[in-house]
Amino acid sequence: MIKTDHHAFVNQLLVYALVMISFTGSIGLGTVWMRNQIALTANSIKTLETRTAEVERHIAETTTMIASEQSPDELIRRNAEWRLGLVAPDFRTQIVRINENPEQRLAAKRNREIFAVDPAAARPVKFVMGGER
Amino acid sequence: MSKGFASNYRIVVLAAGIFLCFGGVGVRLLFLHVIDRDQLVRYIDKARRQVIEEKARRGDILDARGNVLATSHTLVVVGVDPQMLRKEDETKWPALASLLNLPLAELKKTFSTKTRPTQADDDSSDAEVDIRWAKLSEDITEKTYESITALGVKGVYGERTYRRAYPHNQLAAHVIGFVNKEGAPASGIEHFADFYLRGQDGWRESEKDGRQRELAQFRTREVPATDGYSVVLSIDSAIQHIVECELDELAKKYSPEKMTIIVSDPHTGFILAMGNYPTFNLNEYSKADLAAQRNIAVADMYEPGSTFKIVAASGALNDGLVTPESPRFDCSVDRIDYKGKTRGLPREDHHFAAPLNTAEIIGHSSNRGAAQLAMLLGDERFYNYARAFGFGQLTGFPVGGEIDGQMAPPARWDGLTITRMPMGQSVAATPIQMHMAMSVVASGGLLMRPQIIREVRDAKGERVYRFDGVSRSRAISEHTAETMAYLLMRVASSEGTAPEAAIPGFQVAGKTGTAQKLVPVMDSKGRTVLRYSEKDHVASFVGFFPASRPQIAITVIVDGADARCPGGVAYGAKVAAPSFKRIGEQLIQYLDIKPVTELRQPLLVMGGAKL
After folding, report:
1. Which of B364-384 are b and which e, b meaning 16 or more Cβ less than 10 Å from the residue's Cβ?
2. Are the CB atoms for B453 and B447 separated by under 8 Å?
3. Which among B378, B553, B561, B566 could disulfide-bond with B254, CB atoms 3.0 to 4.6 Å apart, if both were Cys?
4. pTM to 2 decimal places
5. Which of A45, A71, A95 minimises the CB distance to B589?
6. Which residues of chain A lie closer than 8 angstroms to B599, CB-CB?
7. Is there a contact between A101 and B601 if contact means CB atoms under 8 Å apart?
């Protein structure tokens, strides 16, 4: 009986040891797996960061290029190169300033339309080139 | 009786073996984690730990309409480790040379130079060391670098670096300033607003592997970089371009020594354009000489000449000593009594047979008339008005190394100063001071601070701070300012000195200036003295429009244009006033400035009221 008890104790110890080893091993493997996942995630984040930085670099480069293309000197050069013929409007001949007050004219016209017996009496709006009248 | 599945002996041996193994691992762990810990941690720290700096992106400088005037982008510095070059890559060298924009011979020379002499003090030493890095080019764009990488030439690699780019080259160069290759802001807004622009570098602590690659999973502490703010200027690149084109035209026509043109909103003091000649390309600042980098508008002073007459006239009107029509001053006399002494009056360019009133003094730019107006005020009052107009003190313009000009207090005046200063001699002002003085009239009597920064935005484009116009003081009353504006309109009329500045349909107010320059000459005793030259002038026109509702103030100053002018004299009316007109006409279109017209009938008609 003593011998049997002794065996039982050893067997029990062995089982506990194996369970403990399995448990510890599982924890170890779990930890390794977890660390591996952390490393994978970290590397993935790093890759994304690198990619983001790369995109930002390209955006900055493109912004610079666009700004250069939009500079007045460059636009003038392109205008000549592509023979677009774009010019600023001539100050004296192409811009007509209407000095008359438009609200007043429109209000008067509206009043005439409302009160005039003969609708034909309502004078149409007439602007004179160069503001002369 | 079962003996179980193992004998006693074997079980004990197995158990002992397992415990021994565990014990061994435990002991090793004890050594690693407790006994040798400090030594190992030191080693790992040295070998694997690293602090990576994360550079903050410098903010952009934008114009008033959001156009990028200065920005940061990466460039790649490409170099070669000649020790790592492979024979089989030699066929790729021509393509590489083409991408790097280098002659093939130069590339081959760099590649074949594998050692260099040691830089030992001992000249006799002929030892050589291996070259591990030879620079090939430092201005490679990302796109080109991708092509270079795709070639796959072993040993050729690049390092990225932030560089400042100025897409508009020389546009507003003196205002924007530049960041040098070391990354230090050297001048202009780059220097002044560096606090906003530079941002805050970040860093992170992590570990690296044997190939120097970061082990991202071992990142511990991390402080992200904060990108710099963007600074929005009041400069409008279209207006600045108009100004710089005008400077180019003037330079071609007159070949002057230097010029400056300033355009601003007189009510707020915000500068819309500031151009100087000579100028330089911001992307090639190292090639420009220092004279070209000088912001003449704020760092140079000149005798303002007749443009300064607005001070005496404004002062006399403001104090109620005169009205535009009366009294009349005899401008034909060449001497006058003042404070019990007879003073010589300056020469006139024209003879005025009849006495002139204040309106005519301004319209005809009478030197003697201006002197008599100043004498009416007296030394102290005249000096105080000049100070009130901002002369002899800094305007507060933030960039360009502003100087305060020269204006001596009355205690240091000689007997002639009261007759000369009102016509703009014996006083030196910067172009920005003269511009702001004229803006006093345009703004209704307020001396504004010239400003260049409109707002500050964060990296996401959200407004952080907005600057508004700042009034420094009131120089003259609103009524006096209106009267002066009316008087200055005469200057740009057929009756005045500068009909060339008139813009048809618009009320232009302004003042011409043709200031003689002080040049060193030898006197009869062989000493070098400064005398007013008959051949060297500073031509200027300072004005604004529309006079009754000022929207734009423009200053044109051309220095040393005499050689190519008819008669050898660069008159303000002939050189600067036409420029004012040309710029003004373009601004009318660009800013849609409407002519001031009186409403002939009230808007009551809208409500059906009787007209």
Report:
1. bbbbbbbbbbbbbbbbebbbe
2. no
3. B561
4. 0.82
5. A95
6. 101
7. yes
Cβ within 8 Å of A, B 156-185:
160, 165, 167-169, 171
Mean pLDDT of B95-101: 92
CB–CB of B148/B100 below 8 Å? yes
Residue B241 and residue A73: Cβ atoms within 8 Å?
Answer: yes
**B61-62 and B230-233: which strand pairing?**
parallel
Which residues of chain A make contact with B248, given a CB cutoff of 8 A? none
Residues of A in contact with B238 (CB under 8 A): 72
Buried b (16+ CB within 10 A) or exposed e, B504-522: ebbbbbbbbbbbbbbeeee
Report d(CA B450, CA B10) in Å as an integer: 98
Q: How many CB atoms lie within 10 A of CB B264?
A: 28
Q: What is the reported pLDDT for B120?
A: 57
| A17 to B18: CB separation less than 8 angstroms, yes or no | yes
Q: What is the mean pLDDT of residues B540-562?
A: 94
Q: Which fold has domain B237-590?
A: Beta-lactamase (3.40.710)
Q: Which phi and psi (to 5°) does residue B132 adopt? A: -110, -5
Q: Which residue has the tokens 């005008």?
A: B246
Domain ranges of chain A: 1-87, 88-133
Mean pLDDT, residues B208-232 taken together:
89
**What is the reported pLDDT for B121?**
55
On whether the CB atoms of residues B543 and B537 are closer than 8 A, the answer is no
Check if B220 contacts A (Cβ < 8 Å): no
Q: Would you kindly state where each structural domain of chain B is located, as residue ranges?
A: 70-84+97-117+126-163, 237-590
Distance between CA atoms of B547 and B509, rounded to whole angstroms?
A: 5
Task: Report the CATH number of the B70-84+97-117+126-163 domain.
Answer: 3.90.1310.10
Give the tens place of pLDDT for each residue, B128-169: 888 888 999 988 888 899 899 999 999 999 988 888 999 999
Give residue B82's identity as a one-letter amino acid code.
P
Q: Which residue of B has its CA nearest to A112?
A: B608
